[in-house]
Amino acid sequence: MSIIHVVALGGSLLRPEEAADRTMWMGQLRQLMVHLEGNGRRIGLVVGGGLPAREGILLVKETVSDRKKLDEIGIAGTRLNATVLQQVLLDIGCDVAPTVPHTIEEARVLLERHHIVVMGGTVPGHTTDTVAVKLAAAVHARHCIIATNVPHVYTKDPRHHDDAEALTEITLEELGAIVGVGTPLEPGASTVVDPIAVEVAMEAGLDLAVLDGRELRRLDDALEGNLFDGTIIKA
Ligand code: UTP
């Protein structure tokens, strides 16, 4: 049986400020996927909504009060980004599932038939981190990699605390204490890892890896099971 990887790709990775960075990143991601597919690996890519999700939610936040409806807008943003990556990979002839699945089960079945499946969100109430962790558990992946726009998990939010320290190896319990397990995120809100994803990983006994997805070398290292620059989170 081939090795299956699941990677949550933060939506912000698709939209760096500089268009040149964006083009380079897409090219490197294509190379990485071609390489993995060539080695017989199967990869589930779960893409975040980034700018389209945030903009859509912001547009109607004062008008629409039902949180589920805002979440549906966020999910549409994630599916847009997933379609972008799906087409980018199809364009160089990768064996990518022709549909963007709506459920974990659909994704699991598609991963039996294709080397690569790209998906976004599924149902209201969580973020794509949770989708990725659920998919990783469903396909018995070794771990779930969360590729985001920060290099590590920190002791506290580095955007607001100068004394935040980068962590290289922690437990799910420790990550849960940092992100606040038990407190669901507001639609469109963000923490380094969605607290619900941490809870699901705890239930599944699944290790996580957090790394800077802007540096695809780090993702490559983590996928190969090598030492990588980032944070390992042990179940
Ligand atoms: P994201 O997964 O993009 O959240 O979902 P994020 O943490 O902001 O990730 P980045 O920044 O893209 O990496 C965006 C929003 O879409 C809804 C939620 O409202 C979430 O905040 N959503 C997403 C769901 O309700 N269910 C899903 O399965 C996925």
Tell me what the structure shows.
It is a single chain. The chain is an alpha/beta fold and 235 residues long. It has a single domain, classed as Acetylglutamate kinase-like (Carbamate kinase). It contains 8 helices and 9 strands. The strands form 2 sheets. Strands 3-2-1-4-8-9-7 form a 7-stranded mixed beta sheet, with helices on both faces. A two-stranded antiparallel sheet has the order 5-6. Strand 1, helix 1 and strand 2 form a beta-alpha-beta unit. The longest helix is centred in the middle third of the chain and has 25 residues. The two termini are 24 Å apart.
CATH topology: Carbamate kinase
Helix % is 40-55%
Bound molecules: uridine 5'-triphosphate
CATH homologous superfamily grouping: Acetylglutamate kinase-like
Classified by CATH, the class is Alpha Beta
Annotation field: number of helices:
8
Mean pLDDT metric: 95
- Oligomeric description of these chains: single chain
Range of strand content: 15-25%
| First-last Cα distance | 24 Å
CATH architecture: 3-Layer(aba) Sandwich
The number of domains: 1
Note the overall shape. Answer: globular
Gyration radius over CA: 17 Å
User: Would you tell me the structural class of the helices and strands?
Assistant: alpha/beta
